[in-house]
Amino acid sequence: MAKRLQTFFGQLGSGELGYMGKWIGMATLIGVGGGLAAVGFDHLVDLLKANALARAIELETEGLGQVGASLGLLQAFADNWPLFFILPLAGLLVGWITYKWAPESEGHGTEQLIRTFHDLGGAVRKRVIFIKALTSAITIGSGGSAGQEGPVAQVGSGIGSTASKAMGLGDRDRRIFLLAGASAGIGALFTAPLAGALFAPEVLYRKPEFEGDAIIPCIISSIVGYTTFTSITGETKAIHISSEVLGTLTQGDPRELLLYLGLALLCTIASLFYVRTFNGIHGAFNRMNWLWKPARPALGGLLLAFLAVFLAPLTGEFGVLYGGYDLMTGSIGGQLAISTMAILVVGKALATSLSIATGGSGGVFAPSLAMGALLGGIVGQIGAQYFPSLGISPASFALVGMGGFFAGVAKTPIAAIIIVCEMTGSYGLLLPLMLVSVIHLILARGWGIYDTQVNGPADSPAHFGDFVVDVLEKMKVGEVIDYTSEVAMVSQNSTLRRALEVVAGESASYFPVVDNDKRLVGIFSLSDIRRIFQEVDVQDLVIVRDFMVEEVATVKPEDSLDDALRLMNQYTIHEMPVVSAADPRHVVALLTRNNLAAAYHQRLRDLRRS
Questions:
Q1: Does residue 136 contact residue 146 with C-beta atoms inside 8 Å?
Q2: Domain that residue 500 falls in
Q3: What is the pLDDT of residues 540-575, one digit of tens each?
Q4: Is this prediction's pTM over 0.90?
Q5: Which residues contact 468 (CB under 8 A, 6 or more apart)?
Q6: Rounded to whole angstroms, what are the CA distances from 4 to 11, 24, 163?
Q7: Distance between CA atoms of residues 498 and 574, nearest Å
Q8: Are 156 and 182 in contact (CB under 8 A)?
Q9: pLDDT digits over 349-366, tens only?
Q10: 380 and 446 together in one domain
Q11: Are residues 534 and 604 both part of a single domain?
Q12: Quick one: 184 and 257 in the same domain?
């Protein structure tokens, strides 16, 4: 069966339908797989939620509930003692599974997706698909502050990679379908097909770049994944917003943009705290060599339990457990006080770091959106309170905060903007979304939540070969050679002794041979004379013409460096004569691999700076 599919997709890629046919066929297949994986993963998370923490302490929200003011913290500890067993036990189980079976399923899934694309040729082990789904479901189902979107992106990417390997596709195609699988999972689970399609090609790079070749397959797989998921589950929105709130989502008075600018600044400060906290906890736990590695997420779970209980008297039914969807809906609906939202921003950053950076398994997508919603809710409520004449809708600020915060912290401005538009079904907030996202992206360019991102395609190992050719094709031989440096040429009638005298005074390895009119007739290298230069008896008898190579590879000043490199590789040489365009036997300079490499790296540095 696999061989038949390989033949079929091979025909799609090279036959009448062309390469686009292979994209459509594979992307559709991967989209169905990604959609089904999203359904299964979502069901597994719900199952564990219902039978773990929720059953043990009758938890119905992300917070631990309101406790009496007089008893406060002590009452919270007494009422929620199972938390101190369930979270560490879940962390220990996750740590042991990842340590023993798939270390790459540790952490947030998008990070591993990016690493796989850049450094691993798009290859994902089959076991990761199942282990990532299981460990993330355990982390989230037990109350860990983690999202489902990152794990489902890694699960979907595993499906794309596995399908590509089964079809016998190469590294380039495997990388593309790796992203297509991730898009299928995100588009399905977040019920945002366009955002899902754009997120995977965009998240690879810190700078505003897309993996262009992957966009069409990602769009197809995301649409198919979304359709598969919604057809089975009936869910069409990840976050349900009431029609009353939807009617208020707009940016009316232009003066509101000043408040949105303040929101962008607040997002920048919060994202710096979030990233530094996450990386700091990750580094601290990695340095715990005295602690068995699988026990580290267990310690993280224990600290999360203390944090959740400590916040209970302060935040009531809203808390830092699970992915943060209650925080999003509460911020959008205006159900949270400003002080509570401020506490929860800090608490959610700490909780997410303790759940994932310690060695747990989950995503940072949803927690980041939750923090953005809280930040937007703070600014929106302050604006509505102090500037009533503007008619400010705090819900609008909460939604813009979601997109704006995630855009800067994940370096995905386009996907973040589209997510909010798809969630609301409206482009009424497009202007403030763009403003907050871009300002946050610019101000936060020095940090981000995904350490495996590279600046741009030129910095990705996946594109090293592409960019060498692209840069060298646009550079000419005449740009890099030194016309002022005299080429050491040897007459074809010179004796070996005379040739050795010339060679001894030069640093070159190759020497053009010319006739009496200084016209090129051959070439020799140091290796050509190495075997005979010790023969003193023949040094005055052998002439250069006896050992030179008559077939000379040459380039002209107007030839591209790509052509020059191709000839060097073809003839296995390190230097070659540059001849005049008017006279192909008139040597004007010598081109070396060192010249070529230095020119390439200088041009690449110039391109990066520009």
A1: yes
A2: 474-609
A3: 677 888 878 888 889 998 888 888 888 888 888 888
A4: no
A5: 600
A6: 11, 17, 13
A7: 23
A8: yes
A9: 999 999 999 999 999 999
A10: yes
A11: yes
A12: no
